[in-house]
Amino acid sequence: MTSSPLVSVVVPTYRRAAFLAETLNSVLSQTVATDLEVIVVEDGSREAPDALAKHAGKFEYVWQPNQGVGVARNAGAARARGAWVAFVDDDDLWSPEKIERQLALAARHPEMGLVHTDHLALVDGELQVPRRTPPRGSVPSGRVSAALMLSNFVVTSSTMVRKSDFDRVGGFTSNREWAEDLDLWLRLSRACDFGFVEEPLTIYRDHAQSLSSALRWHVCRANVLEHFVRSSPAIRGEVGPAALRRRMRDMYWTGAYAHFAGGEHITAARLFVAAWRWQPSNPRPLAYAAACLSGQRGVDALRRLKGALR
Predict the structure, then answer these.
(1) Beta partners for residue 202, in sequence order
(2) In angstroms, rounded to a whole number, what is the distance separating the alpha carbons of residues 306 and 178?
(3) CB-based contacts of 226-230 (< 8 A; 24+ apart in sequence)
(4) Which of 153, 173, 205 is the last residue of a domain?
(5) Has residue 1 been placed in a domain?
(6) ∠ CA 232-185-126 to the nearest 5 degrees?
(7) Per-residue pLDDT tens digits for 270-299
(8) Is beta strand 36-43 parallel, antiparallel or unpaired with respect to 93-94?
(9) Which of 145, 178, 205 lies at the terminal end of a domain, its last residue?
(10) Rg of the chain's alpha carbons, rounded to an integer?
């Protein structure tokens, strides 16, 4: 570990010993490894020391009681001595040139406070090129708040953030019912420029989501977007009122329908009402909310009506 690192790499981990050693191998294989320090933060589990025994002395190990990935990342960043902090989840991987390419772009554009890369997805042992929104070739750089409101195009394990900007905006939230990554990117987008390396230098391991985590995903992102609109009212004009209404309606509708399909009718009703609030001219969400609040009989009647109209 270098005494004066340029980049501090933070690896939060929780019960993923089967992947952690491979992740750390990819970090320690960086072409600029001598400019890195590596901080592994274990969030409540007790598996990392055995998994990483062969790398002893090459990283700093921190244990904390289970508090969530946002707190774990913040704990690592608080110990970081580098000018930049790079984040990689404990099951994702980096290509050897990742940090080198990001540092090169940042050197050419000192106004950038966050640099991220394109990525591949590892699904059942097979590398795939996932869809991007915006599509590859159109990922924005610079001040990207409006674009982030319409799509979260930043993959956490691909990011390298200037430490001073990270500290200035307060790091990740500790709220477990929040999309902590999108929340941070939105706050950073108000503080600095973003840069994008178009090479797929990050490998994101795509695990099958459980129903509960899929439902939470929609609600968390809708909550973060709504909060950002309230805290940064100028974003309405930057995105455009019509585009913002569509985005918020769609986020709440998608979350509501996922809960509806999963039998979580009370939560679905609340989210259907939220979707309607962003587009009051469309009564469809209110009809779904009323059916949900009518109990199983109302839900069954709505499904019969949908089937008859097909």
Answers:
(1) 94, 119
(2) 33
(3) 227/183, 228/149, 228/183, 228/186, 229/149
(4) 205
(5) no
(6) 145
(7) 999 999 999 999 999 999 999 999 888 877
(8) unpaired
(9) 205
(10) 21
Q: Report in angstroms the alpha-carbon separations of 112 from 76, 134, 135, 163, 166.
A: 22, 20, 21, 12, 12
Question: Quick one: pLDDT band at residue 265, thresholds 50, 70, 90?
Answer: very high
| Tokens read off for 282 | 């469309």
DSSP 99-135: HHHHHHHHHH-TTEEEEEEEEEEEETTEEE----SSP
Range of the domain at 247: 211-309
Burial of 309 (0-12, 13-18, 19+ CB in 10 A): exposed
Read off the amino acid at residue 4: S
Which of helix, strand or coil describes residue 283? coil
Q: Give residue 128's identity as a one-letter amino acid code.
A: Q
Overall average pLDDT of the 100-123 stretch: 97
